[in-house]
């Protein structure tokens, strides 16, 4: 059985075939078969304390159908957070194909605004909480961070980055994110030299992040 949930009240447990889990996840396959794996001797009881049940349900649906589809009717659905959560789960479970699909879907959410020269911080679908979540759940240098940091830089106007960089009388959650995470701060600071007409170029082709 596998239990997912970020709080005791949100815990949900599934009883899933070991063969199905092993087929899609190297991590879970090793947990069932490799004596040196920390979760060996199997999947009789495995807990994912940082995974929301809806995130794991999306993975279950994918395992049974080979179709990646988010539950968009949920009141709490937010595409950036949902696709990022799927990638993070895929990274933890070592599921290369699932990670790639999630990352491509995330890219599709952020690329339209990057190509819009009239974009700005208020139009961006990326929230401060999305960046904070990803920074807490991933290591510096991972492709998920790179994609979202580049998307923020591409979405924002040069003047908006300037205001944040120099703390020009702004009161925004973005300032806390900027001051807390050095790699995010570095990415935005480096984007200052890029004018509004060319900021779209800071979001690279999707294959650069997938590779």
Overview of the molecule:
With 211 residues, this protein is mainly alpha-helical. The protein has two domains: 1-49, no CATH class; 50-209, no CATH class. Helices cover 55% and strands 4% of the residues. The protein has helices spanning 18-24, 26-33, 53-65, 79-93, 96-114, 128-137, 143-155, 158-165, 173-180, 182-190, 206-210; strands spanning 2-4, 12-14, 46-48. A three-stranded mixed sheet has the order 2-1-3, with no helix packed on it. Helix 1 crosses helix 2 and helix 4 packs parallel to helix 6 (128-137). The longest helix has 19 residues, at 96-114. The model has no long low-confidence stretch (mean pLDDT 90). This is BTB domain-containing protein.
């Amino acid at each position: 059985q596998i239990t997912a949930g970020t709080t005791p009240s949100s815990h949900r447990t599934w009883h899933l075939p070991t063969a199905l889990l092993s087929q899609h996840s190297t991590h879970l396959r090793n947990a069932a078969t490799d004596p040196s794996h920390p979760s060996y001797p199997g999947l009789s009881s495995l807990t994912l304390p940082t995974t929301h049940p809806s995130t794991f349900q999306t993975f279950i649906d994918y395992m049974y159908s080979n179709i990646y589809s988010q539950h968009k009717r949920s009141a709490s659905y937010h595409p950036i957070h949902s696709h990022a959560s799927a990638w993070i789960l895929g990274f933890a479970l070592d599921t290369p194909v699932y990670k790639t699909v999630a990352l491509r879907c995330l890219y599709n959410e952020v690329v339209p605004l990057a190509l819009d020269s009239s974009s700005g911080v208020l139009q961006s679908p990326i929230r401060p909480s999305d960046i904070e979540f990803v920074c807490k759940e991933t290591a510096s240098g991972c492709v998920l961070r790179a994609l979202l940091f580049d998307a923020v830089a591409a979405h924002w106007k040069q003047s908006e980055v300037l205001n944040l960089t120099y703390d020009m009388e702004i009161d925004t959650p973005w300032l806390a994110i900027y001051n807390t995470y050095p790699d995010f701060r570095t990415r935005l600071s480096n984007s200052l030299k890029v004018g509004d007409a060319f900021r779209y170029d800071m979001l690279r082709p999707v294959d650069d992040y997938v590779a």
